[in-house]
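Listing S7. Sequence submitted for prediction.
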Amino acid sequence: MPMGFLKLRTNNTFLVMVIIAISIAYSTQSFGSHLMGGSIEYEFVQETAPGSGIYTYRVIVKTYTNCDSTSLVPLPANFIRLGIYHESDNPNADKVLFQEQFVTLTDSSQISPELPVGCGVGFGTCIYEGVYETTVDLPSTNHLGNPSNGYHFVYIRCCRNGSILNLQNASSQGMVFYAFLGPPDSQNNSPSFADQPLPFICINDSVSISNAANEINGDSLVYSFIDPYDSYVGQTSAAPAPPNPLPWPLNLVNWQNGGYSSSTPFGPGGMANINANTGLADYFIPTQSNYVIAVEIQEYRNGQLIGSIRRDIQFLGLQCPPNEIPHFGPQSGSGQSTFAVDEGDQLCFQILFNDSNNDGSATDDSIFIETTGNLFDPLITNPTPTVSAPSAGVSPFFRTFCWNTGCNQGSTTPYNFTATATDNGCPNKSTPVVYTINVSPFLGPATLFGEDSVCQNQIGSIYEVDSLSGVTHVWSINGGTITSGSNSHQVTVNWGNGPTGSISYHALSPFG
């Protein structure tokens, strides 16, 4: 985020009355002049009854509305029309409607730049986030009685803002907010975007923005830029009923001529790159205007695609006075963002940023460092790491990250979190950095070597495992006696006169 944000709540009763009044007052030409984008996410709730094959999911739709002085409809609508469709046995076929739901607004908040005193850049820029939630019971069979291949969640809207530079005749192009869930018995939770979108981006200035998502199932995520969807209704309907069937594939937007595309959304001289593993994106906007982009997150489990979400969002590129972004690491070089630790061991390091505006003048920047991610959620990660206080200070500034990893936290999938440093310039500038921590699981010996058939009262039987450094060897025996090597990787055993016996081995890591 290149600036701080101020969130203001609305009263939903007042909100409904305002929306109804404004909707009556304006013609179809104003339908899309306020809506800037949005996303759909979902959460598994429960199987409705054991063995029922019907699974309850919570669906969350988020919309972003332009609420500045130019907006004809500054607040979110009081309800939306959500279409839920079967995935076809033929993935290229049109989609059959399973259910339509009218979903009411459950929450809304204003996203405004939290600017330093006396800074007027972006003043008046305003976005409202509207949140709509509902639950739906999804059968594990499709409309033909076959095993379900999944469900599509679709919210269709009319025309976009006519001032969008990177789309052809933007006001005649609509939006489709979309998410996909694979077979519902996967009991999957979609990724959830961790941050809200930005009110504006400064032009002619490189900026990094995190699109990182929270993911609680341990699935692999792949981030990419994609073509936003265009609806099929043009300017004829603001929020049409979900069609049945849903034409497939969905329509894509028409990019403006002259070098605009999903990979070059800001045109010639611009830049947009995204890290497929972390979602960290780098942007450079050369021209002041409005732009549309879309970010997709695909979710894989055991190598199979089990879901996807996307965020469609409109960027406003503004002219800003010079202000260097916070720099990651010491002034003399770049910082380290990838670390490794053995499970059960402690990992500590400094999250360090500096700001080149810190020259002893009255315009020195202080730095605020915020850390976000599943790693800090005790319901997902236990034990969690700590990050030292305070959260802000004069450049160069650091916070200390420490994590006493647990013996069950070793994983072949790395842990990630985002550290974002924000200065107090005009406007605020931010630098997000995605940290990657590889926690190596402790792998003891895989095989116990020795005789598995012995005579009664046999002496001198040798049992051993591969030798590992730094481990504690723990042997257990029934029906015999260990005569030597009980603290090593090899023991000698005298067996008794019983009909059976057993020997087992455990290796304890240096961290217990």
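Caption to Listing S7: primary sequence and predicted structure tokens for the chain studied. The helical segments are 12-25. The longest helix spans residues 12-25.
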